[in-house]
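Project standup — Tuesday

K.O.: blocked on the structure for the chain from last sprint. Re-posting the sequence here as requested.
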Amino acid sequence: MDNAEELIKAKIERLETATEVKEPDRIPIGIATTYFPAKYAGVSYEDVWYDNNKYTEVGIKFARDFNWDAVSLHRSFESVPLG
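H.V.: unblocked you, prediction finished:
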């Protein structure tokens, strides 16, 4: 097993242990974000709004660079009319 697989396994175990209300090796850290990964990567909001591949690319960069235990990437619905 390579280092990346070991890191992923450790993160999953950490999250599962915490959700079972047991004591993990450390407190898992996760984040839910909208457009900050685009800003961090120097990509316009418009580009990530219309280009799913670009949104995925900046999301992966953000997750890898900050090494969170969990990341939830989602776009805001601020520009979508709701009624």
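K.O.: great, moving the ticket to review. The chain has a mean pLDDT of 87. Residues 3-73 form one domain.
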